[in-house]
């Protein structure tokens, strides 16, 4: 087996050379960019899609459930999903992966309800901030604009900081070079294809990532010469607990759900992730891009599929690190990993090198690259739509044409890429790690979660409750965080403010203080009686200039079938039915993930037996295999007709038997389902394929 040589000094002799690092970061990034240029050309030539401002920012609002699910999985699979979850497994044992996965899955499931409400209340919105502006006016809009951009910035920083640390550890590539080069390919393909490019590359990234994770799991639990079975891993974990028992765990074991520090992380994780889902415009982008009938199944399938990724990845790689760190194949042998390395997210790459040598290093580099780039593209589009529609069109140029909106979107994508890389360099010099940012995000942003949610689901929230609760909630959170840190440590440095108890205090204060504040402002200023009409008045981008330039009918360019009153009534009924289903389904699944499954094991302090641990791992492998089917294979099956038609058109075109006129009309009957609708030429209601 090709094991890497042991090296305690951060892989000074890295498992891979710098050339491999530059090759993957630049080469793979460039390949995806060129691939999306080709896909965009194919969509334009054979599917008659045109890059209007609406298509760039909303993907025509016609994406099907399979691609929505894969986009959700990809957007939620940050570097932290793989690196941080593995780190908490290394620290707390089997409880860490479950607390991470369940504490971040429920937000996606609950967001499904919000996605349906968004489609019902504001069908033409581009961002959730437009909804805030339509309902509450300018002051509230600016408040949520700050919180929304802060969310995107924090998430982007975590992605780049965590990803660059891993690239550096595995290849020796300089961290600053990795920080600046990781976003290059992402910016390129996002510029070319907009949200549609992001969603398509999300699927490709998710497909590759799941295959590599399944290989890691099967290697550790089925074929490795040191591990090779759940039974062998179990025995090594028992030995590891004897050498260094976990403080706060039942009997110091790594094989129990009863973990004091793990439970604290669980609360911090839940709170922080509410902010990064409910305030991240990227998730609203996915909801907006989905055709109305596909939003609910897309988010439910995405949430359930995502759960297996951090759960099984961390259960495999975190436990592999614990089991193998006492062997010569582990990079830090004979020492344990330093806490700073764990916080930097290096448990996963170290475990992969111990497990598969250079093959493990390449696999880790690929999955981290996929996670960082796909989630970063989502952040680029999220910030682009906010700056284009909520800043530029709202306050600077309300009459902006579609061409001008696309220009602004492109400028923001490039500018934000440079800004976030430069900011990441500053954090690197300051010694701020991905783990620190992950714990901090809830303190900074979660005070806006409840007011933002109520804006879509409760007609009674008045504008002062919506506007002031996030500001005062943030103040409460910062006070709770810093006062607790000062009281515990007597100082306010990175180590103390980043410890669990201060972060717990700040996160809980951020999420729960608005419960009191909204109630107080409702009592003072009264219950609002909002009629939801102003949200319906949000308008789409004016793409007449682009449409006329290409000889297109604007209604068809939007990718939506002609909206009659009957269509709107039918769609509203479907969304109302989906709203009821989503509320019931998400409540049941949330209770299952947070209470029914973990709490009996936590309360009883059950320490896993060998058969139980074997079953635990087996369920994880089955679950991630189902995830691969759900978000890897199902999107291909769902789009099989479009794919077959496109491949046939390409074949006929290449062989010279016939070729489609570029930007021509498409049969209107082919747009009967919203998921199939794409921008088409006006004037002729017939697809023309000319014989040579």
TrEMBL record:
Residues 670-692 are annotated as: Disordered. InterPro entries: DUR, Na/Glc_symporter_sf, Na/solute_symporter. It holds the Pfam family SSF. GO terms for cellular component: plasma membrane. One of its GO terms (molecular function) is putrescine transmembrane transporter activity. Keywords: Membrane, Transmembrane, Transmembrane helix, Transport. The chain crosses the membrane at residues 20-43, 63-83, 98-118, 139-161, 173-192, 204-222, 263-284, 296-324, 344-372, 405-430, 436-457, 464-484, 504-527, 585-607, 613-637. It is a multi-pass membrane protein. The keyword Nuclease does not apply. Belongs to the sodium:solute symporter (SSF) (TC 2.A.21) family. PANTHER family: PTHR46154, UREA ACTIVE TRANSPORTER. This is Sodium:solute symporter family-domain-containing protein. It comes from Corynascus novoguineensis. The lineage of its organism: Eukaryota, Fungi, Dikarya, Ascomycota, Pezizomycotina.
């Amino acid at each position: 087996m090709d094991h890497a040589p042991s090296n305690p000094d951060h892989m000074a002799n890295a498992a891979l050379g710098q050339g491999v690092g530059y090759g993957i970061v630049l080469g793979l990034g460039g390949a995806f960019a060129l691939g999306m240029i080709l896909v965009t050309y194919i969509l334009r030539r054979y599917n008659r899609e045109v890059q209007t401002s609406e298509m760039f920012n909303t993907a025509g609002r016609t994406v099907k459930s399979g691609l929505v699910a894969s986009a959700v999985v990809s957007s939620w699979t940050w570097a932290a999903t793989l690196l941080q979850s593995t780190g908490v497994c290394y620290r707390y044992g089997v409880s860490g992966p479950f607390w991470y996965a369940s504490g971040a899955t429920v937000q996606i499931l609950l967001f499904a309800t919000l996605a349906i409400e968004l489609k019902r209340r504001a069908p033409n919105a581009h961002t959730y901030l437009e909804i805030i502006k339509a309902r509450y006016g300018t002051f509230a809009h600016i408040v949520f604009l700050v919180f929304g951009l802060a969310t995107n910035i924090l998430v982007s920083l975590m992605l780049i900081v965590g990803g660059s640390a891993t690239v550096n550890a595995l290849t020796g590539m300089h961290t600053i070079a990795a920080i600046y080069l990781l976003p290059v390919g992402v910016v390129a393909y996002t510029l070319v294809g907009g949200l549609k490019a992001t969603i398509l590359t999300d699927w490709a990234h998710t497909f590759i990532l799941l295959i590599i994770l399944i290989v890691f799991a099967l290697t550790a639990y089925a074929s490795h010469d040191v591990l090779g079975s759940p039974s062998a891993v179990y025995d090594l974990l028992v030995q590891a607990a004897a050498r260094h028992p976990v403080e706060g765990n039942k009997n110091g074991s790594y094989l129990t759900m009863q973990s004091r520090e793990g439970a604290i992380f669980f609360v911090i994780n839940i709170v922080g992730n509410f902010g990064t889902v409910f305030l991240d415009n990227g998730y609203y982008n996915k909801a907006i891009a989905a055709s109305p009938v596909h939003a609910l199944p897309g988010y439910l399938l995405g949430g359930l599929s995502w759960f297996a990724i951090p759960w099984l990845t961390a259960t495999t790689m975190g436990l592999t690190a614990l089991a193998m760190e006492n062997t010569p194949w582990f990079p830090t042998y004979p020492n344990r990993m330093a806490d700073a390395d764990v916080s930097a997210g290096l448990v996963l790459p170290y475990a992969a090198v111990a497990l598969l040598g250079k093959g493990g290093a390449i696999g880790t580099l690929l999955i981290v690259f996929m996670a960082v780039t796909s989630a970063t593209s989502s952040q680029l589009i999220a910030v682009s739509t906010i700056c284009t529609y909520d800043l530029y069109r709202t306050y600077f140029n309300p009459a902006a044409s579609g061409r001008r909106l696309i220009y602004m979107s492109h400028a923001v994508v490039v500018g934000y890429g440079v800004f976030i890389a430069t900011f990441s360099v500053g954090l690197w010099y300051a010694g701020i790690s991905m783990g620190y940012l992950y714990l901090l995000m809830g303190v900074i942003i979660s005070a806006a979660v409840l007011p933002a949610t109520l804006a879509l689901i409760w007609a009674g929230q008045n504008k002062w409750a919506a506007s002031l609760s996030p500001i005062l909630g943030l103040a409460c959170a910062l006070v709770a965080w810093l006062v607790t840190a000062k009281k515990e440590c007597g100082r306010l440095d990175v180590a103390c403010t980043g410890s669990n108890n201060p972060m717990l205090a700040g996160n809980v204060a951020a999420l729960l203080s608005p419960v009191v504040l909204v109630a107080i402002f409702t009592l003072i200023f009264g219950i609002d009686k909002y009629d939801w009409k102003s949200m319906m008045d949000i308008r789409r981008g004016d793409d007449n200039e682009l449409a006329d330039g290409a000889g297109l009918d604007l209604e068809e360019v939007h990718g939506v079938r002609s909206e009659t009153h009957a269509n709107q009534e039918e769609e509203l009924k479907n969304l109302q039915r989906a709203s009821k289903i989503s509320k019931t389904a998400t409540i049941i699944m949330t209770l299952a993930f947070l209470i029914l499954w973990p709490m009996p094991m936590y309360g009883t302090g059950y320490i896993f037996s060998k058969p139980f641990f074997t079953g635990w791992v087996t369920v994880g492998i089955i679950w991630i295999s189902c995830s691969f089917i759900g978000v890897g294979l199902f999107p291909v099956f769902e789009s099989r007709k479009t794919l077959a038609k496109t491949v046939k058109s390409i074949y006929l075109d290449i062989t010279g038997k016939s070729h489609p006129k570029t930007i021509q009309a498409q049969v209107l009957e082919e747009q009967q389902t919203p998921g199939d609708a794409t921008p088409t030429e006006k004037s002729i209601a017939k697809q023309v394929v000319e014989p040579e």
